[in-house]
Amino acid sequence: MTIKEKVQAGIKYLNDIHPGWYKKINLNTFDIDDNKNCCIGQLYGDYYKWSNDNNKTLDENILLGLTPGKADIRSISGLNKEWIKQITNMQEMTLEQIYNLLTDNPSRADLDRVIEALGNMITKTYRVEFNAKAGLCLKDVVDALSELRVSNVSIEPIS
After folding, report:
1. How does pLDDT run across 41-61, given as a tens digit for each residue?
2. Domain end residue (candidates: 91, 113, 147)
3. pTM for this structure?
4. Which residue, 39, 74, 91, 135, shows the most beta carbons closer than 10 Å to its own?
């Protein structure tokens, strides 16, 4: 199995046992080779304790990309990078996803998710486009962004 395949298997497993798990991962401290800062460590406190409590073998965890195996010692960095890449993709909404949410009669939860996603983009510059239908529901988003002092996101109507 490749590193990417292992991480994808691990993601599927975590999605099954802990929906939304990726929202709780701090990528600033993430380290797949640290029992407290890997996915399991950040979710459950300690990789080794979780493995013992759940009767998970080292071989199972290696196949799920939850820990590097002895053969993977040289590729700890690659495993770490793949987890960070995949978690980043899961944590960040794309502008297309934001646009689709806003143009499809968004709920309050959708607006909150958009506000969170735009807040995460605070260090990046984006142009968010919307149509007239979505424009009415963006008042909350614009108000929240101004409260966050987000000045690098421009919201303009599509002509």
Report:
1. 999 999 999 999 999 999 999
2. 91
3. 0.61
4. 39
